[in-house]
Amino acid sequence: MFKTSASWVWDFWFADDGERFHLFFLKASRALHDPDRRHWRATIGHAVSTDLVEWTEVADALVPSDGPAFDDLATWTGSVLRGPDDRWRLFYTGVDRAGQGLVQRIGCAVSDDLTTWHRVSDRPMTEPDPRWYERLADGQWPDEAWRDPWVFPDPDGAGWHMLVTARANVGPADERGVVGYATSTDLEHWIVGPPLSMAGAGFGQLEVLQVATVEGRAVMLFSCMTAELSEERRARGETGGIWAVDLDKPTGPYDVAGAYRLHDESLYVGRLIKDRSGRWVMLAFRNLTPGGGFVGEITDPMPVHWDDDGRLRLNSA
Known about the structure:
Elements: E1 7-16, E2 21-29, E3 43-49, E4 56-62, E5 74-82, E6 88-95, E7 104-111, E8 118-119, E9 146-153, E10 160-167, E11 177-184, E12 190-193, E13 207-214, E14 217-224, H1 231-235, E15 241-246, E16 260-264, E17 267-274, E18 280-288, E19 294-298, E20 302-306, E21 312-314
Antiparallel strand pairs: 1-2, 2-3, 3-4, 5-6, 6-7, 7-8, 9-10, 10-11, 11-12, 13-14, 14-15, 15-16, 17-18, 18-19, 18-20, 20-21
Protein name: Beta-fructofuranosidase
GO molecular function, one term: hydrolase activity, acting on glycosyl bonds
Organism: Kribbella caucasensis
């Protein structure tokens, strides 16, 4: 388990350099006392491990920019990958003081060693296109969702895909959560396109997306809390947590209406990764106590498997 006495830790993602696993995570000081204040103080921390169990915290990866910039208030969730030039790229979410933390944009930093990071630009790489995506001025949601970029190469070598937590500009307010989408041929210039899922699936937002191919079968993970489920889902007694969607292909489209829950919201932000034995496991952050208090630490690896019904499951679930 990864936890620190000084900070809460929550959303996270990995990079694997072949020798060590690198854990990138959101962190904020426990001196804030109230964990709800952590979002506006978030920076991106960094830890390393050889086994996904024992972690050593190292220097933070990224902190907010000096203003004015799209990320001068806080730096939020992202993903890391190695490009064809062997440089590592960290795609991340930024929120700014001018927008009072309510306007989310995607930026990028680069590194040669996964330790020292340099921003590519003080301008965002992608932002929501109003042809398809809700904006803050629409007044349908507390913020303008465009965050948690998951970037991965096209399986056929045709460029790069970016999946984003976003909201459509149509449909009931509590069902506008969609998989936002952008493409690139060089990891530098991105074209935002229409979402890869439909509004009306019963989710206000799909947080911290990941696509993986586990034992030859493609699956997408996302998280959604009870409060962000649609009124209809809550009326059926559904509650939030970590969700999975079985896929025909990694690049979508994604049938989010067919999502099923992997774990309740005591855990959040499930991330799939292969350990050194080649076994697929999931880590998550410990979110809520039985009494509803925030925890803020990351679990040990939990093996996953496909059950007889063709659904991904945690071995302990």
